[in-house]
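Inverse folding, one chain.
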């Protein structure tokens, strides 16, 4: 009973308390004290992607195993660190289908975003790329003072459509390698060759409508200074007469008919099979140690005057974006700096197109010879683009040098259409 009364009393007390409480009393809110401040969340800005410059290069200089690659890579790494950008190197074939110019021409109309910022092109491809509006003029981006340090032929190579379009950086030319046991001095003239007993190996094969360098240099030397070399009948007759005399005396190496590349003649010279052979400066530099038993000189000419037909490579800017152009110009300034170009070219076994860069190479006889050749060098003459002339001269020379025709017969056939 006491228990029941106690429970009843507790129940009544609870009912009374509930009746006295205010209706809809909200739940208490706990506010932070000054000692416990609200946490602050700061938004972190997104890290911007670094600018990526793309550089298309010929495969002979763009691969890690390439001579000179380490020197170039050091320049690129320093540039990336200084500018906060990344440089991507893309190797391409030097020329022809799948080559640098071919890729440039095919990429521009269909995927311009994939074009490089900088490209290296052979001298002879700069006018074609300029004509197609694939390159950017350099005048607003560089001081023209750098042009003064380029060799004369390189200054010519830098221009197209009367505008400064490229920066030549490498050069090469064909010249003679000979055995001192065959001739004590370089055979500067055709007469020296005709009076010797040393067969002369030079490339005179290849495509019908093209000149080999040796053939072109021989022909030019048969043209008097005051005459036009384009379709010069008398000059061609002088050339073919020399070839006929040399052939009859057994002084023309028949292997020349099988190639248009001086590399093949050079390999025969290194093996001791060719006492007189055409080569190039880059081949000589790359294998100078193996050529210790050989000497060098200019390609033999009719008048004995050295002539040097220059080939080489030049940088050009492709991007039309102003910010990227400025970065590209700064990178090329670093690559073309006197010391940088000297170091890279020496390691890569190619001649630099800047005088001050070659002056930093170690002094030796070949470097002196190369310096003189670079000062006198010239680019492919315009008449060499006449394919009909090239075909007729090439066929005539080939016929005489292989004994299929006399000089008179080949000459008459060649000039019939002139």
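Residues assigned per position:
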């Amino acid at each position: 009973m006491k228990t029941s009364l106690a429970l009843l009393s507790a129940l009544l007390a609870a009912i009374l308390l509930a009746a006295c409480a205010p209706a809809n009393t909200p739940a208490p809110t706990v506010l932070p004290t000054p000692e416990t401040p609200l946490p602050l969340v700061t938004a972190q800005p997104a890290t911007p992607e670094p600018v990526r410059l793309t550089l298309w290069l010929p495969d002979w200089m763009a691969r890690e195993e390439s001579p000179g690659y380490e020197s170039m890579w050091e320049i690129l790494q320093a540039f990336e660190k200084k500018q906060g950008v990344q440089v991507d190197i893309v190797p391409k074939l030097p020329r022809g289908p799948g080559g640098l110019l071919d890729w440039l021409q095919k990429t521009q109309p269909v995927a311009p975003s994939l074009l490089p910022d900088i490209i290296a092109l052979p001298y002879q491809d700069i006018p074609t790329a300029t004509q197609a509006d694939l390159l950017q003029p350099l005048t607003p981006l560089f001081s023209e003072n750098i042009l003064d340090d380029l060799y004369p032929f390189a200054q010519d190579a830098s221009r197209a459509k009367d505008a400064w379009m490229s920066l030549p950086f490498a050069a090469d030319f064909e010249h003679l390698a000979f055995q001192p046991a065959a001739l004590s001095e370089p055979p500067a003239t055709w007469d020296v060759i005709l009076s010797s007993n040393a067969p002369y190996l030079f490339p005179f094969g290849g495509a019908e409508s093209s000149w080999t360098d040796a053939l072109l240099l021989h022909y030019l030397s048969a043209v008097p200074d005051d005459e036009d070399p384009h379709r010069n009948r008398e000059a061609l007759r002088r050339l073919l007469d020399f070839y006929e005399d040399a052939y009859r005396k057994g002084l023309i190496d028949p292997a020349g008919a099988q190639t248009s590349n001086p590399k093949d003649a050079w390999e025969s010279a290194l093996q001791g099979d060719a006492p007189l052979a055409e080569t190039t400066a880059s081949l000589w530099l790359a294998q100078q140690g193996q050529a210790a038993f050989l000497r060098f000189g200019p390609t033999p000419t009719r008048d004995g005057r050295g002539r040097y037909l220059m080939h080489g490579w030049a940088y050009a800017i492709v991007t039309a974006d102003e910010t990227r152009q400025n970065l590209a110009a700064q990178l090329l300034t670093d690559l073309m700096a006197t010391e940088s170009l000297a170091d890279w070219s020496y390691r890569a076994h190619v001649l630099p197109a800047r005088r001050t860069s070659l002056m930093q190479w170690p002094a030796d006889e070949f470097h002196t010879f190369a310096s003189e050749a670079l000062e006198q060098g010239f680019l492919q003459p315009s008449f060499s683009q006449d394919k009909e002339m090239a075909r007729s001269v090439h066929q005539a020379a080939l016929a005489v040098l292989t004994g299929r025709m006399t000089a008179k017969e080949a000459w008459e056939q060649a000039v019939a259409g002139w």
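The chain has two domains: 52-171+311-375, 173-309+380-415. DSSP finds 18 helices and eleven strands in the chain.
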